[in-house]
User: Which sequence fits this backbone?
């Protein structure tokens, strides 16, 4: 009986380690995706500011 319990413990410990490794891998992937998203949002905001500034500049030119 004790051997069966020990096998089950070992099996669960291995499964736990596998799940932890998978979680760590997913955390790394999520971190990378988050960084990429931040960069893209920043680029988008810069582009929108430039676009708005350009439109504003030409609107001022047309009214003058």
Assistant:
């Amino acid at each position: 009986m004790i051997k069966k319990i020990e096998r089950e413990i070992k099996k669960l410990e291995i499964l736990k380690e596998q799940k932890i490794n998978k979680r760590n891998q997913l955390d790394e992937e999520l971190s990378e995706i988050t960084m990429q998203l931040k960069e893209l949002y920043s680029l988008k905001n810069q582009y929108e500011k430039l676009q708005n500034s350009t439109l504003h500049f030409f609107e001022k030119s047309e009214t003058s």
About this structure: The CA atoms of residues 39 and 45 lie 10 Å apart.
